[in-house]
Amino acid sequence: MLYITIILAIVGLGAGMIGSMIGVGGGILMTPALTFMGFTPTHIASTSLIAITSTSISSTVEYSKQKRIDYGLGLKMAALSTPGAIIGAFLSSGISLEYFKLYFAIILIFTGLYIVYRNTILKEKPDAKPKSMFFYMGSFTAGIVSSFFGIGGGIIFVPMMIILLRMTMFISGPTSQLTLLITSFVGVITHAILGHPDYIHGISLAAGAFVGGQIGARLSGYLRESILQNLLSVTLIGVALKLLFDFMNKK
């Protein structure tokens, strides 16, 4: 229906803009919207990933112009996360909507807490050297999370770069967008082979997300993020509580 198309485009616009600015991927907002609309887990994950790919293309192009991407690291993370993205697409077929809500609520709570305490993490003193094992495992896990929930994996990539590699947000967010582009694209292809996506809904989200990604990338260097971080974290935790409430009422 036309009104669903319009709603999804608006959701994509806001999610693309916010996701681009903080580097965690717009799927963290698009997936809850699709969940509340009652779509199946495979529909949610695959449709959201189409839009995330669009956001990542848009953001990567803009960040590339700003010379804020570490290409070597971004490609390395993508190589590690790609197998996980394929596995995540297959796993999404075997979960009910109720348990999808439960697991996603947990992801949202951790994401909300990360956003609140991200500045504190940035101020901590660096370790002597990066923890390579956690870096490899984290990248692979991010790929699974990306295709399973349709959120792109940025909620793992960005904290991992900040905590393990001690990178600044100025570089880690844009680098995450390059990795998301590749990981999400692989996830979309896998979901498409499995016949999961609703392309009309995906294109509606993607159209809004592409524009939002451009806006977010351009604003990221000028706006103070503290108010946005607090508002987003409260929103995510609120959505998580609603998902948990829905899950408990179904039991």
Polypeptide structure, described:
The chain has 251 residues and is mainly alpha-helical. It has one domain (2-250). 81% of the residues lie in helices and 0% in strands. It contains ten helices and no strands. Helix 1 (2-22) packs across helix 3 (41-65), helix 3 packs parallel to helix 9 and helix 5 packs antiparallel against helix 10 (226-250). The model has no long low-confidence stretch (mean pLDDT 84).
Mean pLDDT, all residues: 84
How many helices?
Answer: 10
Number of domains: 1
Low-confidence stretches: none
Helix amount: over 70%
Question: How many β-strands, per DSSP?
Answer: 0
Radius of gyration, in angstroms, nearest whole number: 16 Å
Provide the structure class: mainly alpha
**Largest sheet report:** none
H/E element sequence: HHHHHHHHHH
Beta-sheet strand percentage?
Answer: under 5%
Overall geometry: globular
Question: Termini separation (Å)?
Answer: 32 Å
Summarize this structure briefly.
The protein is mainly alpha-helical and 251 residues long. The protein has helices at residues 2-22, 27-36, 41-65, 71-91, 97-123, 132-150, 154-163, 169-193, 199-219, 226-250.
Main traits of this protein?
251 residues, mainly alpha, 81% helix
Give the secondary structure arrangement, pairings included.
Layout: H1 2-22, H2 27-36, H3 41-65, H4 71-91, H5 97-123, H6 132-150, H7 154-163, H8 169-193, H9 199-219, H10 226-250
Helix pairs in contact: 1-2, 1-3, 1-9, 2-3, 3-6, 3-8, 3-9, 4-6, 4-8, 5-7, 5-10, 6-7, 6-8, 7-8
